[in-house]
Design brief:
Low-confidence stretches of chain A: none
Order of helices and strands of chain A: HEEEEEEEEEEE
CATH class of chain B: Mainly Beta
Shape of chain A: globular
Oligomer: heterodimer
Largest interface: A-B, 15 and 17 residues
Number of strands of chain A: 11
CATH topology of chain A: Porin
CATH architecture of chain A: Beta Barrel
Number of helices of chain B: 1
Mean pLDDT of chain A: 89
Distance between the termini of chain A: 51 Å
Number of helices of chain A: 1
Low-confidence stretches of chain B: none
Helix content of chain B: under 10%
Chain lengths: 188, 167
């Protein structure tokens, strides 16, 4: 009986997340883009101080949800070293990031994200899921419809459950460039 | 000697005639970079363009850095740079950098760097991805080296430098 209730609950939550409002056109993968940015980890013994580059893919799921595939690696002091790869689910806090209809989403927004990262920061030194992250994007400027978006000063907490360490991370900026779902491709 | 003076005069007149008219000559900005001695630098900078020329437009820049490392946060050094904007081209390569049209203007910067112990070094920076807007100068991924008579003692990469042109 418990299993059935849990299954129904999971289904309701999943359906709610992917629910569409009013319009019958879907927002699932309506917008897809790539991300380039900067990422630094603080108070984390696994990372050297320097400069880390962040690259990613950004896919819209619903009006308020998006999925990011993010990879980071060190470029200074060692060039291309210490890879991390993760998935983040972001939820927009100040309104819709896209709309079902032909209107553009909110131009200024905030987001909160939750994700799981793989890297080799564990005792066995193998590439595996190690880190849960909670990231806050205080301000995003732009929208998929305009073709680009800047996420300004994102910061967050990382919990490495393999080594039981908590650290902070911070970016100056992350730039999203959309190749699907822009005014050029979808709104003409 | 007369020849050189004549050539210089012609160059000055030609450059003046072909000069671009930018609305502002000076500005201030901030930068974020990483250095090979495992430090992160956050800096503020001022920039002044001395002359508008189509090629090798000269300017000066002063950077003051704070450095963060495993030893904590401390003064990171000062750099005095002479810089030359190599050319100005309409930026068709990265049009999405700004809503406004931008000019691609790579720049070479040479000068002096005093580190946190005020030990003097020479410094060289190449800002290949440098873009000019009416009010802003954007620079990304600019590598730099600091060296003295003993050779290169550190290198790094400026991830971004945003300069607000206002004067």
């Amino acid at each position: 009986m418990k299993k059935i209730i849990i299954t129904i609950l999971v289904l309701i939550i999943a359906f709610s997340i992917f629910a569409e409002s009013k319009d019958d056109s879907s927002n699932f993968l309506k917008d897809i883009g790539f991300t380039i940015g900067h990422n630094e980890n603080y108070f984390d013994n696994n990372y050297e101080y320097g400069l880390n580059l962040l690259l990613g893919l950004d896919a819209g799921l619903t009006e308020k949800l998006e999925l990011n595939l993010i990879g980071t690696f060190e470029i200074v002091p060692s060039f291309i070293k210490d890879f991390s790869l993760g998935l983040e689910l972001n939820y927009s806090l100040l309104g819709e990031r896209v709309f079902s209809n032909r209107n553009a989403g909110m131009g200024i927004n905030s987001m909160v994200g939750f994700g799981l990262y793989c890297n080799n920061h564990n005792d066995k030194n193998i590439f595996m899921p190690t880190t849960l992250v909670l990231r806050l994007y205080p301000a995003t400027v732009g929208a998929p419809a305009s073709g680009k978006r800047e996420r300004i000063l994102p910061l967050g907490l990382a919990y490495n459950f393999m080594t039981n360490d908590i650290s902070m991370f911070f970016s100056v900026a992350m730039y999203d460039h959309y190749f699907k779902g822009t005014w050029k491709t979808n709104y003409k | 000697m007369k020849k050189y003076i004549l050539i210089l005069l012609i160059l000055v007149i030609t450059f003046s005639l072909a000069a671009y008219d930018f609305p502002y000559d000076s500005g201030f900005g901030f930068e974020f970079s990483g250095k090979s001695d495992s430090t992160q630098l956050v800096g503020i900078s001022t920039y002044h363009k001395i002359m508008d020329c189509p090629f090798f437009s000269p300017g000066v820049e002063i950077n003051v850095d704070l450095s963060a490392s495993s030893k904590g946060i401390k003064f990171g050094g000062v750099r005095f740079l002479a810089m030359f904007d190599l050319f100005y081209l309409e930026n068709k390569l990265f049009p999405s950098i700004s809503i406004n049209p931008t000019l691609w203007s790579p720049s070479i910067k040479v000068g002096f760097f005093w580190n946190d112990e005020f030990y003097p070094n020479f410094t060289l920076e190449v800002a290949a991805f440098r873009f000019l807007e009416k009010d802003f100068v954007y620079e990304w991924f600019s590598p730099f080296v600091n060296f003295n008579e003993d050779g290169i003692n550190s290198w790094g990469l400026t991830f971004c430098r945003f300069t607000y042109m206002c004067l």
